[in-house]
Every structure is written in structure tokens, then in C-alpha cells.
Design a protein that fits this description.
Elements lengths: L1 E5 L6 H14 L23 E5 L8 E5 L1 H7 L14 H17 L3 E8 L5 E11 L8 E7 L2 H9 L5 E2 L7
Antiparallel strand pairs: 1-4, 1-7, 2-3, 2-6, 4-5, 5-6
Length: 173
Amino acid sequence: MRLASVDLNDLPSTLRSVHEYWNRSRGARFAPSWSDIELVRFPASLLPTTMVVDVHDPLDKSIFRYWGSRLTEIHGMEMTSRHPYDITPSEFGRQLLVDHREIVEKKVPLAWHYSFLAAGGYVHSHSLIRLPLSDNGKDVNHIIVVADYSAEALELMKLGREKFAEVIDNLPD
């Protein structure tokens, strides 16, 4: 698995529009609440690859509140009401826990390009943004994750390929 952190300004236009909507919705707060967000305001092309994580304490007990319909096809499993960190391959699940912990601790939106080898030699690549939500104004209670598999996202990944870093050896056990 390879991943690269991405500046929010370097995201595909659809993911930038999601970030702009999130930013408008939060006002002066570090994050909007779940009730401030209307997923139907996201680009329609991204709704099938959108996820919402309900953050629990401890973090590894978090669950997917929403799992876009295309994600079941991509990952070969339905994950609604399941722990994000149970996703396969297990290296990916462990990386999600690391990434979600970073969102919870920093309380800011973060973006990445992911690429990994899937079954049958298929290279699975996408760009994504993770956006914190806070129902109480102090803690991250939900994380919206929006993945983009578009041609624009793949082209941006090709341009930034030199930034990819191997992460498998750096994952927690």
C-alpha cells in the first residue's frame, strides 16, 4: 500500500467543493455538527463513495454510520454499522485507524492519495478527504470520508507519484 498526504488545494475539483461546503457549514467553529451537513449537497458523483464514521471512545470501537453503495462493490463487503478497522486487507484497516486518530487529534480536514494492489493484480487508487464533525464543539464525534475515483483524481495522483511513501512497514501492530 502506498499513500501520500495531499494539500487541500491540490485535490480534484469535486473534493475541493466538498471541503468548501464543509468550511461554509462550520462558520467560526473548528467543525460543523452532523446536523449541519446535508450529504445531498455533495457532488452526486461522490455520494456512492462517501462514508460517515461515528467516532467512539476507544477509537477502535467506531462504526460506519453511512457506507456509500459503490463502496460495497469496490471493497467486496457492506460495512454499514461495522468497525472501519475490520476492512480488508488488514493493512488498510490498520492505516484507517492511524488516519482517523490523526483527524481526531488534530481536528482539521486532511486529504490523501491511496494506492494498493488488490486481488487479481488490480491497482486500486483514489483520492480522498476526511472531514471532522463535532456535535459538542470540542470533540470529533463523526468523520466524513469522501473518495474520488475520477479521471481527474487519477491524473493528480500520477503528477504527485514521487510523493508516495511506503507505509506497510510503519503501521502499528
